[in-house]
Amino acid sequence: MAIDAATVRKVARLARIAEPEERLEPLARELSGILNWIEQLNEVDTNGVEPMTSAVHVTLPMREDVVTDGGDPAKVLSNSPKTASNFFVVPKVVE
Amino acid sequence: MSELTSLTLKAALDGLASKSFSSEEITQAHVQAVEAARALNAFVVETPEKALEMAKASDERRARGEAGPLDGAPLGIKDLFCTEGVESTAASKILKGFKPTYESTVTANLFRDGAVMLGKLNMDEFAMGSSNETSAWGPVVNPWRAEGGNAQLTPGGSSGGSAAAVAADLCLGATATDTGGSIRQPAAFTGTVGIKPTYGRCSRWGVVAFASSLDQAGPMARTVEDTAILLKSMSGHDPKDSTSLPVEVPDFPSFVGKSVKGLRVGVPKEYRVEGMPPEIEKLWQQGIDWLKEAGCEIVEVSLPHTKYALPAYYIIAPAEASSNLARYDGMRYGLRVDGSNLTETYEQTRAQGFGDEVKRRILIGTYVLSAGYYDAYYLKALKVRRRIADDFDQAFEKVDALLTPTAPSAAFALGENSDDPIAMYLNDIFTVTVNLAGLPGMSVPAGVDANGLPLGLQLIGRALDEGTLFSLGGAIEKAADFRAKPAKWW
Q: Any chain A CB within 8 A of the CB of B361?
């Protein structure tokens, strides 16, 4: 299935990646090429096949619901672009 | 000092144990080799002071009689592994300057056993690529060149830095990761050995995530035995990774050199793809003959869904990547590019922080997961994945392992495939099935092509049966007697 520039704009918005107008057409062509190649999966009969969601047959282990880590704000914040008194500083969300 | 850098890991460990040389000496030799090889661009961060400090501590441990199984051996670490206090960027601008405050489980295991870290190895950005050209820090150059040529070749990807560093004798071994072939294809392109173990064998904790249901760490080294020694240290159950398998780690090195007599080895007919170079076809046949001579029974098997593995992978891996890479939002770590509001800040940060291939995959992943397309693409791919895994299950009722080529070509020139994403994706045609099924796969150097470039053979095993791969890999290594080395030009 071919996708157009408007779809690329929408998907880029969903992915929170700014794509300049002039990149939308070339990206639509590239992505359509890849998706057309993927279309061959429709040749495979998958009726009644259980989707494979994990590469190993294990049940996820449970653990005690206790705190095992924390109490080290300096470590948590050490790679932050902007901090103030033990908090992350982020752009204003609510006016 | 060059004789110290050309030792195998096993010989180096023996030399350290017999006190023929110290860790400081062998580490210093490697530090110099790394410095002299900057033209390869294999390392993105060199940590010579840390290396020599670790070497000194290792020598002290050995003097006290407390040496571990890898004590004093200098290794390279792929930049996908978080290393405490040492910049870890996954070769992406979005993580420039990121210094983890924790150590990945795999590197912690290696250091627990005494390994010395020389630095961080270059790779494709977020491990997305087959040629190392998507690295934000420039491509790695393969130490191998075609005979009579001086064109720069790719070392493969994504673990291109690991492969080049091992091939050029810059380290005794390296960590690597494999999501669709990223250990095995570079191993084939550089005449080195690489194994992707069973999914869940090595902890993914502290490894920058690309596609979580496919990602698996493994070692690269110059011999099968060396990879066995490294994998033994890297593996083990880790409660911090819920998909880490709670199973015993076998003594992998003990499988190398074991007789392979009576083992049944399958040759999947679907791997004879159109346009495969005759040299690779010939090498494959040679591999079959070697294993026959070693006493294996060769059985033709069918894996009918092989051709659908790559298209399924290019839904599943980007879907998981689009979700995993959502964390790079410029708020808590990494790059932040300020916009006029929050959304613009996210969008600009990600636009400037990610490279083209990473963006392409995030967009595909976002598209196939978006409302209205989830069933047609993502769910379909998961069902095809099941059929691919079922193919292997059926084959393994008849055989103990499979033998295939590792890659459809020898190393190609940098720039050769970079404008055609699908041509690039086809590099993983023989390796990607193994990731989808969660099985172990190994690449062993088996010969050179007409241009003198290395070619590899792949062995695929049952889940948790790396041992058989080490035995068969050892048999191929012995028969191939691959001794070619790249001529030093760097």
A: no
The residues of B annotated with a catalytic role in the active site are 78, 158, 182
Predicted confidence pLDDT, tens digits, chain B (490 residues) = 469 999 999 999 999 999 999 999 999 999 999 999 999 999 999 999 999 999 999 999 999 999 999 999 999 999 999 999 999 999 999 999 999 999 999 999 999 999 999 999 999 999 999 999 999 999 999 999 999 999 999 999 999 999 999 999 999 999 999 999 999 999 999 999 999 999 999 999 999 999 999 999 999 999 999 999 999 999 999 999 999 999 999 999 999 999 999 999 999 999 998 888 899 999 999 999 999 999 999 999 999 999 999 999 999 999 999 999 999 999 999 999 999 999 999 999 999 999 999 999 999 999 999 989 999 999 999 999 999 999 999 999 999 999 999 999 999 999 998 778 888 888 899 999 999 999 999 999 999 999 999 999 999 999 999 999 999 999 999 999 999 999 999 9
Chain B residues whose CB is inside 8 A of the A8 CB are 363
Are A51 and B385 a contacting pair at CB < 8 A?
A: yes
For B383, which of A15, A40, A46 is closest by C-beta distance?
Answer: A46
Is there a contact between A46 and B346 if contact means CB atoms under 8 Å apart? no
Rounded Cα–Cα distance for residues B203 and B239 (Å): 9
Flag if A40 and B308 touch (Cβ within 8 Å): yes
Q: Do B345 and A93 touch (CB under 8 A)?
A: no
Domains of chain B: 1-490 (3.90.1300.10)
Cβ atoms of B472 and B265 closer than 8 Å: yes
Amino acid at B86: V
Question: B92 Cβ partners below 8 Å, 6+ apart?
Answer: B125, B126, B136, B353, B354, B355, B358
Q: Which of A41, A51, A91 sits opposite B386 (nearest CB)?
A: A51
Task: Identify the helix (H) or strand (E) that includes residue B267.
Answer: strand B264-268
Q: Which amino acid is at B344?
A: E
Q: What is the ipTM of this complex?
A: 0.96
Q: What is the rounded distance in angstroms from the CA atom of residue B121 to the CA atom of residue B332?
A: 25
User: Nearest C-alpha of chain A: how many angstroms from B242?
Assistant: 6
Residue B227's identity, in one-letter code, is T
